[in-house]
Amino acid sequence: MSADTVNPIPLYASSLRLTAVPTAVGCSRMFVRHTLKLWQLEDHAETATLIMSELVTNAVKASGITEPEPKAWQTAAEHVIGIQLRAVEASLYVEVWDRTDAAPVRKNPSRETEGGRGLLLVEQLAKRWAVYRPRVGGKVVWAELSLGLPVELRPFERTPLILPSAIRASQGPVEGQARSALLDVLMTTTVDAMVAARVIRDT
Prior knowledge:
Helix content: 25-40%
Number of domains: 1
Number of strands: 5
């Protein structure tokens, strides 16, 4: 296959590394709303925000600090999660990385049980969800939402997302690991989408 025969497909992607503390959940919701507004995909913001909230909550529980108001000295360089939104073809992907290997477990809580319904909600809202194992370690839990129609690249003005400075993960080995993991899942799954799109066009 020559370079001339490759037809690139439109792709939007944006990622962020956050300190793995409870306030990351609210910041991840801001990230979703801000990003989808830029991409003119606001119609999907409510569902994507709910899914991102659940996945980030799980990631913080798995690898971060769960105290509501942790002290600065409690957070360390390893308390990092990575979040990413990606729109390719007719799908929107919500992706969350944390440094632990243990996959999240889908529970079946009773009506009286508090909590434990996160993945049930994700399962109901998403087209599908799964766990990706990046080469740098940890895991990316992702969920796919249907956009209905393939995305079209449009010019937009990049406006910065204003977040509290302490919530952005400081640079270091784990922040770099999160960055690499999100790039890994982006590259791998985007190539898969391009191949699938080409197969559909050629049939």
